[in-house]
Amino acid sequence: MTENKSAPLVVLGLDGGDPDLLVQWAREGYLPTLASVMKRGCWAKTGGPELITEHGPWLQLFSGISRGQLGYYYLRQLRSGTYDLHLATGHGLDAPPFWAALRGTQRKVATFDVPEVYPISGVPGIQLANWAVHQGWTSSDPADAPRTEPAALIEEVRQLYGPRLSIYENSDSNLDEDQRIFSRLLEQVSRSGELYRDLLRRDRFDVVAAVFAASHTGGHQFWKYRNQPDGQELGHAIRDIYAAIDHEMGLLLADELAGANVIIVSSVGMKDHFPMGGLLEDFCRKLGYQVASQSWPSLMGLARSLVPERWRVAVSRHFSRETRERLLAEQFRAGTDWSKTTAFAIPSSYTGFLRVNLSGREPQGIVQPGAEHADVLRRLENDLHQLTDPDSGEPVVQQVVRTSDLFGSDAHPALPDLFVIWKPQPHFRRRLRHPAGEIAQKRPEWCRGSDHSQSGFLAAAGPAIHACGCIEVVSLMDIAPTLLTLLKAPVPEAMHGKVQRVMVEA
């Protein structure tokens, strides 16, 4: 059987690349590779319901499968049928990337460090995962280890390029440490580009997908410096990291990829923000939604309440992520009287996640489906919109979104009932005001001053792509079917988006 021929497809990603900064710096000449693609083709912000939370956008982008079906929305979720928390990733979800549709063909694929997308068997070519990806936390989860397809390739990568270059964020770093992190991130970009080019020279590939993570780590780490005066040390660190990635992208495109259809894409943008999770938990408790257990607290919980905050924060940094998560899960499960709780918050840092303690869904659910469920949701929404900043008097909640409005009434039951989007703020908020009383939180162990916006970026150019300039907003769900159309491959029925005909030839 003769396959339809198409130009090679190259998808290059900046993890956490801010769309406004990308456009600005491309126009100012700092990102010539991106500027060339924008000039020759089209570009847009990405949007849609999938970007309600920053966890999982690469998974949705490359699979075309909605989080409404997958039920994946955060790094910490409830285990089905329990009040137990567990660490969640894209591993094991039924959301194969678009190149899985090339199984059984002669088309070869090369993929490098696509976040939350793991190697799959049966696809000709090479796949490398988790070698140089964003790492906001330390983790010993085997699923996070670098891996390849074919499996033996990972040893060759280690021998030629050394072990994985792990660069972790530090929300309490000083200038000296930030300078070291900056140098290591530039090294990561250079080493990643060299490795990717080396692997690409080994064969001719019909599909190439490579994502650079330094823009994500660096975006968070150096966000605090971005408004520094010209000449201030690290004032241009984020721009310089983007420029280094742009340079490596240019080298990749120059290496035997001429004539390809090229897509440059980012997952999510950046914004000012500080953790609000403690405030949402206190909101649920102070307003009577989540009732505290009357049983004696655990020894660890009692110790936590007695130790001064600065000591507690300092000590907790020496715990592994798994230990911290286990202690948090214990406190969450044992610290609530579920038989009297109507709604509760999933512990989170930025975007808030609220679940109704629904009968038939939760182990000790007390809220009945239907009218009672709807009434609890209305009360939660009303109370959230009454939260104000005690200094300015301004509302602090930007948006409260029902999952059913985003993904339909048949959305995956693992999803929260409400997503709470807080207004961005440039400082840590310890207190909020509500007509029923004060809402408060302590400083958490992880206290970063930046979070992600609800839009990413896409630019595209090539022989099958329209040169139509800015096309406003492209739904994240539309990218995977559009990529398959560029390959002249059929679009699986499981994909939830549509082909962006404004971008590609019919």
Characterise the protein shown here:
The chain is an alpha/beta fold and 506 residues long. It has two domains: 9-270 and 452-486, 3-Layer(aba) Sandwich (Alkaline Phosphatase, subunit A), CATH 3.40.720.10; 273-292 and 336-450, no CATH class. The chain is 31% helix and 17% strand. It is built from 15 helices and 19 strands. Strands 7-6-5-8-1-9-18-2-19 form a nine-stranded mixed β-sheet, sandwiched between helices. Helix 1 crosses helix 2 (32-40) and helix 6 (175-200) packs antiparallel against helix 7. Mean pLDDT is 90; it is low at 311-315.
Entry keywords:
Alkaline Phosphatase, subunit A; 4-stranded antiparallel sheet; 9-stranded mixed sheet; 19 strands; 2 domains; alpha/beta; globular
Number of helical stretches of at least 4 residues: 15
Q: CATH homologous superfamily name of the largest domain?
A: Alkaline Phosphatase, subunit A
- By secondary-structure content and strand pairing, the structural class works out as alpha/beta
Q: For the terminal residues, how far apart are their CA atoms?
A: 23 Å
List the uncertain runs: 311-315
CATH architecture of the largest domain: 3-Layer(aba) Sandwich
Percentage of β-strand residues: 15-25%
Shape: globular
CATH class group of the largest domain: Alpha Beta
| Multimer state | single chain
| Rounded mean pLDDT score | 90
Main beta sheet: strand number and arrangement? 9 strands, mixed
- The Rg value, from CA coordinates, equals 23 Å
Side-by-side strand order of the widest sheet: 7-6-5-8-1-9-18-2-19
